[in-house]
Amino acid sequence: METPPLLLPPLTDHGEVITFYAYREAASRTAALANLALLLARQRGATSPVLMIDWALDAPGLQQLFGLPRNRPGVLELFEACQAQLALHRPNGIADDTLLAYEVLAALDWQQYLLRVDEGSQLYLMPAGRLDEHYSERLARLNWEAMFQRCPALFRCFAAQLACHFRHVLVDAASGVAETAGLCTTLLPRKLVVLFGAERSSLDGACAMVRRAANYRCSHEDEQRPLLVYPLALHLEADDDQQRLQRRYGDAARQPGYQARLEQLLSECYGVRQIALDSYCDEVQLQRERSPVQGERLAVAADLQGDRLSQTRSYQTLLMWLEPGYLPWQSRAELDLLSQLPQAQASAGAATLTARLQWQLGVLYGQQQHWRQALDCHEQGMRQRQQVLGADHPETLTSMAALAQAQRQLGRLDEARFLLECVAEARTRLLGVDHPDTLAARQELAGTLGAQGMWQRALALYDEVLAGYARLAGGGHALTLSCMSEKACQLYQQGELLAARSLQEQVLAERKRLLGSEHTDTLASRTALAWTMLRLEEPDVAHSLLDAVLQICLKRTGPYHPAVRQARAQLAQLLKRTGSHAGQHPGQPPEPVALLPELRQEGGQEAYDTALGRPMPPLGAELVQKTAAQLLALDSSLAGGGAGGR
Fold first, then answer.
1. How many structural domains are present in the chain?
2. Are the C-beta atoms of residues 235 and 198 closer than 8 Å to each other?
3. What span, in angstroms and rounded, lies between the C-alpha atoms of 379 and 583?
4. pTM (2 d.p.)
5. What is the residue range of 122's domain?
């Protein structure tokens, strides 16, 4: 029976190509691709066409996974035809290899190599090829390198042609360092999903392939296109919490975990100083059974909804980053807020709801030390609230105060002081001098004055705020202690170390009494006091304070918690400053105490400014000058090609 021809009209906008690669875990890679393809094809009313391509030609698995016949032509036959078409053209007949590529592809009926694999959606497959007795022989005769040398644009144009007809094109790449693995990861995709298992060699091979793809993209003018990389950790179902945590965070005395290695990899590829994958690695993980033959299956087909423990839920979580094109170091909380913005903008009270979401996003960016993004959000939210609610509305004043904080962090101290003076004046007039919101604005203003070097005015204002908190809540209240801690920071930065020490000791004693010796705020007070003691040339006391913080964190959270890593970093910094190798006097000021207990996230801003909306910068400084102009000229929308049908 003859198969009826497919009819695939072009999309109204372009789709995208996503390559799946694993250095060793072939079965898990193929199963992940198939499950994600089913999810993508069945969403939005099952109206978006999705294509899978089985390019793992040495060991094809998609046909078997879907139970399809082995006699259908596919990738092998298509490129045999391409090779024959290229042979018909003289080597110098068409100078432009892009024109040559499209002429070759136009001579082929590429749709004859596809078959539909799901009657409930528009899910299609291009199989590896006709798996007959001559398959291996024909595969060995196909010269991929010669085709590329003859027409370098062929594979890029092939991917672009498919993206005109399919919302998502998912490519199953060969494992290891096969010739076609490099082709599929380097030339075809806009997004690259990299799977890795528990073995160190698995992650080593995956990282090497990512570096190879990134380097090629940046060093070849015709290939300077965005490439987004999404790592996917594979865990065995029998792994316990300790095993998973040790794989992720590593052993401090031995090898680093996979999260640190991935952060370093992406930092190098995207040209940013530091990337944090905490939220992504918390959420994006995939469990597999110990027996790959029995365990790798179409979990989504039997469990489309997915409960909390299902593989379907794991695939859906990965799609939260993958489909819209969010970067792996964007947090889950940020994704949730960004996804709500379009709905808020289309609602009845659009301005009010949008302003609230903008404020929440700004607060989140501030917590992550992404102050330029926080500034943009708070500026937009403040303007909307001023227009709808008025200049003196409490929510407008809240946005103004948040905007001032972002400006202060970015060094725009005059603008921050002006806004805070306006907020403090309005709240005093509307709420009274001892209202908590008024005192909070004046406390922030005091910090800004101190940052401008107006020490006396700042300390006088802190004293007024402390008196207000004492009248309002008492001397031992958390708000009072927080203000005392900030005043101590100002004294520390001014060089009034004995006064700072006295105040810090008071705060520490009160927090121990009220909150307990192991509370987060108490540990922050210990850390701040430690740096003051170091500048007072009492390194032994400073060391004992920071070591106590580390031991408490280890006892309360275990060795892999971020608080432990932070405490270790603080102690290491102290040892470096007091050690003979440090080359610094013990009394030299460390990071300002205002940044404690959280360490400054160096490079967090660059992670957004450099990578959001831009292709990968080159690996290696020698390529920067060559590619800078092309990089800046490329399309800046990494989130395009998402929702929508034809």
1. 2
2. yes
3. 44
4. 0.83
5. 16-72+115-132+165-330
